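Before relying on records like the one below, remember that each one covers exactly one chain. Contacts with other chains, cofactors or solvent are not represented anywhere in the record.
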Amino acid sequence: MDKNNDKSNGIGKTKNKKKSSKWIFPSSVLALYLFLYFIDSAKTLGAIAYAAKLAKSIAPILLIVLFFMFLFNLIDEKRLKKTIEGSPRYLQYLVMVIFGTFSHGPIYAWYPLMKDFREKGISHGSISIFLYARGIKLSLLPMLAIYFGLKYAIVLTLVMAAFSCIQGLLVDAVMKENA
């Protein structure tokens, strides 16, 4: 048998396996709902109605979050660096709060950028603001608003943004004493 033919068949099988495996969870949930429907149809329909109501209430907030994430992807990193480097401290703080809020992914992926900012003269406080503001998770705000109310979600987000700035001021003060 030809070795090249064996490899191509193995790759094709792997791709087909990945395509079919992504449907395991949704089909399992559907099967579970069908099973539960036959056991107690009223409760199952109630659960489906509740899930639809929840999805309907989350959808507008989720669309806003997706819109902001789309806008964040349009930001030119080089232009942002230049803006932050030459700006006054309060504007750096504000930009770093916004930048930290919109950032997502693993924190270690942002360390090289933060190192580059530090080498360009951005203060330690501004970098700590970015890291603190990462605690504001836009993708989880709809869930926070549903469970705790919109007012609570807004207040918590604003308090976290304010405390990230306070942390930045404290870090800058401590780092000036150590310098």
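Residues 58-178 form one domain.
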